[in-house]
Recover the amino acids of this structure.
């Protein structure tokens, strides 16, 4: 059998092009490879000419992934005044600096960002780097999340890898401030693991690893439901690939716009609260966030 070659309009013979595979395309990052950014160099992620240090490439991807989440929630942040943001448990503040740089330099928002962490030496280094680049809208303080009282109103709360119930204290403060946005990546969910007391599931929970992982997932799922009762639309998303860290679940909470649906909203919250109470009784747990909000 003779196979005819495809002819173009001009009569020339053409060859079908091989498809471009998505994984062969260069990933478009918000902070681009090859573009020098001062704080990334000081934090050991970039070289002086903007190349990414091989051993820090996972951190570079994590920073950009986080900025993608920030980009998604921009419509929920005010544009006509200073945006107030708190980063609880900021650590070495890779993401805090990236968030400030992105909002202030790239997107031209007027921002006031506070980073809080328990480690005094880490906070000192962060403030020194802040001073070096003249980031006047960025400040770092040493302190505990549950004791923090340095703000009266906050538009956005970030809490990444705050250990165990520290995440609950951060979420609680966000609710009290009526924050428009919350980005939370919980860590070390031990509280529910200690409390779980559910007779129908006790044989499953006899396996320590199953109990630990189930408790962690239940903790974050219940946190999401609690935040729904407080007027937030909540998504549970994958922060970064599981191969890089098992602590990869993000709770993205955005304040719901109620408008003229106050009665429907109240009914929705009431039904959610009733279901949460039933679930808590079934599992034999009393989540810290629920206790804080009841108080």
């Amino acid at each position: 059998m003779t196979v005819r070659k495809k002819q173009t309009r001009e009569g020339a013979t053409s060859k079908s092009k091989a498809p471009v595979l998505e994984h062969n395309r260069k990933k478009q990052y918000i902070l681009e490879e090859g573009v020098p950014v001062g704080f990334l160099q000081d934090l050991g992620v970039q070289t002086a000419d903007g190349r990414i240090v091989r051993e820090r490439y996972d951190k570079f991807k994590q920073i950009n992934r986080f900025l993608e989440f920030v980009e998604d929630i921009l419509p929920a942040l005010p544009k006509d005044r200073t945006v107030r943001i708190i980063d609880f448990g900021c650590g070495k503040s890779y993401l805090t600096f990236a968030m400030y740089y992105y909002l202030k330099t790239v997107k031209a928002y007027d921002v006031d960002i506070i980073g809080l962490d328990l480690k005094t030496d880490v906070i000192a280094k962060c403030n020194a780097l802040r001073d070096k680049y003249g980031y006047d809208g960025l400040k770092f303080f040493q302190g505990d999340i549950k004791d923090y009282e340095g703000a009266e109103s906050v538009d956005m709360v970030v809490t990444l890898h705050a250990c165990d119930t520290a995440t609950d204290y951060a979420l609680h403060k966000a609710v009290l401030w009526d924050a428009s946005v919350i980005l939370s990546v919980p860590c070390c969910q031990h509280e529910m693991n200690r409390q779980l007391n559910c007779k129908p599931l006790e044989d499953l929970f006899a396996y320590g690893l199953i109990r630990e992982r189930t408790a962690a997932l239940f903790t974050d799922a219940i946190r999401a439901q609690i935040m729904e009762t407080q007027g937030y639309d909540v998504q549970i998303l994958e922060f970064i690939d599981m191969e890089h860290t098992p602590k990869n679940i993000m709770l993205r909470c955005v304040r719901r716009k109620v408008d003229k649906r106050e009665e429907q909203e109240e009914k929705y919250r009431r039904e959610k609260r009733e279901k949460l109470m039933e679930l808590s009784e079934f599992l034999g747990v009393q989540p810290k966030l629920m206790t804080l909000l009841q108080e």
